[in-house]
Structure formats: C-alpha cells, structure tokens
Amino acid sequence: MKTNKKYLITLSFTLFTLVIFAFSGCMNPGSMPQSYSSSKISAKAVPTAAESIELSVSGPDMAAITKSIDPGENSFTLQVPSGNNRIFQMNISTLTSSFKGSKTANLKAGAIANISIPMALSGLKLVVPDYYTGRLVQIDDITGTGWIEKTESDYVLGTGEQLAVTDIAYDQFGRLYTTVFNSSAQEARIIRLNSIGELDTSFEMTSVNNVSSPIGALAVDRNNNKIFFSYEDIDYVTHLASVDFLGGSLTDYNFTTQFGAQYEPITGLATDNSGWIHIVMNSGSDWPGFVSYHPADQTKKDYYILPDAHDVMVSGQYIYIADPYSNLDTAVKLARVPLDYASDTNPETVTDDPDSTDTFNGPFRFIHTLTDDLYILDEPTTGELDDGRLIRFELDSANFPGSKWTTFKAQDVGKTSFDYYAAF
C-alpha cells in the first residue's frame, strides 16, 4: 500500500504559523522499518485576526485534500500521502480583506521540511469614505450585503479630533488608513485600522500642525512601506508628504518647489510599482489636473488634462482619473492613460456609462478592491441629497471603460444616503 503521512497541525493566530509533525503510515511488506518526518509550515505576513482559514493539499497520484480551519481551533490532523510536488494552498479571510498563498514541497518519510507559505493580499471589502456623514461604510459587494457602519464614536481618538474620511488607503497587510482632524487646534493626522472597527494604536503619526483643512488624499507605497498624503497649511499652500508604517514624523517633498502649484489642492493620490506617485489637483483651468512625480530621483511629468479632476487610481497597466466637475472645456467624467504615458499622450475618455443607459453624476472617489471591477463613489456636484451612489463595472483593457454597469444606493438597504461631496 502507499505510504501516508499523518500531520498534526498547530496554529498560532498571532503569526499565522502552522507547525506540522509528519509520521509515516503503513509501509509495504519487506520495506524498511517505519520512520517519521516533520514539517513546519508558516503563513507569513497576515497580521490581522482571521475570520476563516482554508487549507488545501494537492499533487500527483493523490486525491486533493481540503480543510476548513476554525480560527478557534488549537490543532487538527490531516492525512497526506507522501510524494513529490505536494502543493499547499491557503486562503485566509479577515473582516476587511483576504489573503492567499501557496508552496510546493516534496514529502518523504524520514525527511524534515520547513515550508513557509508567503501570503499576499488578494481581495478587499468595499469600504466607502463617506466624508460629510462622518462615517466609514463597509459592504461585501455592490448589493450592499454585509453593511457595517462606523463613526468617530467607535474609535478612541484624541481630544478634539474628528473622523475626517476624505480618503482611505490599504497596505499589503490589509490594514486601512484614513484621517482625523482637530479644527480648533489646526492639526491633522493619519490613523490606521486593523479592521473597520479596530483602531491600531501601535501606529502613532506626528500630527501635521497649522493646517486649514483635513488631509486631502492618501496612497500607500507597498514596496517601500510608506503612506503618501497631501494637506494644505493655514496659508493654503499645498504639501505632499509621507510617513512610514512605523508612524513618527513626516517627510515633506517640497511640492510647491517641484510644481509651482502653490494654491492647487491635491485631492487624489496613487502609487505604482515603479515608485511613481500619480497626483490629481483640483486646479481649475490654470494648472494640469494630473501630474506624476518620482520622489527617489525627483523627476516629474505634467499632463494637461482634466483640470477639475478629483481622484486617481492605478489598476493593471493603466492610470484611471475621475473628474466629477466637467468644466466648460470638457465633458469628460473618466479617463485613463498607460502607466508609461508621455506628457503629450491623448487619454481615452468616457462621459457616460458603457451601455448608454445611465450617466455619471459626479465620480469623486475610486473604491479599491484588488479585482477587475472598477468602483466609483458618484454623486452630483451640486450637492443634492439622496443621490450619492456607488457605480461598478468590469474593467476591460481593450474596451474602456468596460461593461456591466451596476449601481447601489445606501437607501437600497434602508440606510442614510452616501454624502461625500457636500463639504468640498
């Protein structure tokens, strides 16, 4: 008969470490005496508490094994046939995000194998920064399933601080970043949430002082462990700055020196894997609405389109830009350019939905999900109540912007309307 191994797996939910002790099973008659091996499997880089854990093992000449692991369990056992090319795959879901990873190993009686499964962020729940209502809203999908709503009363903030969710951003561990503002002290800072309901007090950023308004935009550089953000001081001078994942003091990039756009508020930021920061300024007709900056070598690219743009997002090989205002010079609501664009590149643009059955009101904020779908927080720029909504459609690199336009209003599930625009 085939040799099997019996694995006793112990989980540590702080480090998400699986320790496997493997013992040989039945041996063929006349073979060597029964022996054993042990393996250690670590699922790395998943710091938030798991809601569910799924483990599967597959390989040649064996039936696939799947195991749903209760995060409350301390240990469990598996029977895995020994052999080469055993593929261990793991999926972990938290309240706000999901992770996956895999590792291939050769399992043989008498051997000791240390198997480390690198976990990568693979999905995000929809979290809406609903600025004017002062809340964060999380839903599972465009139907509004799984609605969770949090306001400043759900977090222990500093004296005089208010939740100011002008923007949100995620790091590679699924942690969420947003902002708070103390108007009387003229101070603003970034906070980090392990989940939508759990403030991470280990992240302590030095407040930005002498500011006229909340921090305007956020973006995470996952390669360099930095959070980029923008703010305006009391003289309404625009600043681009960053802080690392450990918190502490900020680095200022002398934005006005680089671009000369002293009074142009930054409303949208996005980063890519090449170290570029893509910047949207609500600038009117005198300045480019979209520019890119590389802080490592201090190079920049100006792009003279969409002077009333509000947000920017990188997905795949493209940069997407949302313009809720559509000034007199253009009716563009959504645009995209390649990541390696030149300053004279003509963007692809749209003014309504892909199926011509609906139109944008005012696309303000991209909602990040790490999927092939594009989600936008959309509402009229004239600030009508009850018209805030989410729009979703599938991205299509060959057919911009995509297909399957779907909308969702908070009222669809009996909640107060999204109202992001009113304060801008």
What's the short story on this structure?
The chain has one helix and 36 strands. It is mostly beta strands and 424 residues long.
How would you characterize the overall build of this protein?
The strands form 8 sheets. Strands 14, 15, 16, 17, 18 and 20 form a 6-stranded antiparallel sheet that branches. The protein has 1 helix and 36 strands. The chain has 2 domains: 4-121, Immunoglobulin-like (Sandwich); 126-423, Neuraminidase, CATH 2.120.10. It is an all-beta fold and 424 residues long. The chain is globular and about 70 Å long. It has one helix spanning 255-259; strands spanning 4-12, 17-24, 36-44, 52-58, 65-69, 75-81, 83-93, 97-107, 112-118, 120-124, 126-130, 135-139, 148-151, 162-163, 169-170, 176-182, 187-195, 198-199, 204-205, 208-209, 217-221, 226-232, 238-244, 247-252, 266-271, 277-281, 290-294, 299-303, 311-315, 318-322, 334-338, 348-350, 363-367, 373-378, 389-395, 402-408.
Rg for CA atoms: 25 Å
What is the helix tally? 1
Number of strands: 36
Shape: globular
Assign the CATH topology of the largest domain: Neuraminidase
Name the average pLDDT: 80
Characteristic key phrases:
1% helix, mainly beta, globular, five-stranded mixed sheet, Immunoglobulin-like, Neuraminidase
Topology:
Layout: E1 4-12, E2 17-24, E3 36-44, E4 52-58, E5 65-69, E6 75-81, E7 83-93, E8 97-107, E9 112-118, E10 120-124, E11 126-130, E12 135-139, E13 148-151, E14 162-163, E15 169-170, E16 176-182, E17 187-195, E18 198-199, E19 204-205, E20 208-209, E21 217-221, E22 226-232, E23 238-244, E24 247-252, H1 255-259, E25 266-271, E26 277-281, E27 290-294, E28 299-303, E29 311-315, E30 318-322, E31 334-338, E32 348-350, E33 363-367, E34 373-378, E35 389-395, E36 402-408
